[in-house]
Specification:
This protein is mostly helical. The protein has one domain. It is 90% helix and 0% strand. It has four helices and no strands. Helix 1 packs antiparallel against helix 4.
Length: 136
Amino acid sequence: MKLYAWLAGAWAAVLWFFTFGVARVLFSVFPRERAGEVTTALFPAYFTAAISLGVLATVVLWLRRRGARDHGAWALQVLALAALAAVPLFIQPALEPHAPGTPEFARWHGISMALNLFSLIAVPAASLLVLWRRKE
C-alpha cells in the first residue's frame, strides 16, 4: 500500500498546490485578466499531472483492494477522477467561446470550480478511508 499512499498523496498534493498555491498567487500578483491567461496556459500540465496520478492511484487501489471500505474509496476516487477529467474534456471547450465577465463564462467557470473542489475533497477522503482500513 506504500505505492498507493505515495500516488494518492502526490495526486492530492498536485490538486491542492495548484488550486491554493499557484492560482492563488497568480491572482494576487497579476491583474485578473493576466492571471487568468497564465492559469489557462498552465492547465494542460496541471490536468495531465493530476489525471495521470489519479489513474495510477486508482488502478493500484483496484488491484490491491481488500474490503468494502476499499471498494467505497475506489468508487470515490473514480468519481473524483471523472470530475477532474470532465474539466479539460468538456468544460474548458464549452468555456472557450465566452469572454470573461459574461454570464455564460461565469456559469461554466463555476461548474469547473465545483468539479475541481469535489476532487480536492474526494481524493484525500478516499485515501483516508483506505489508510484507516489498513490500521484496523
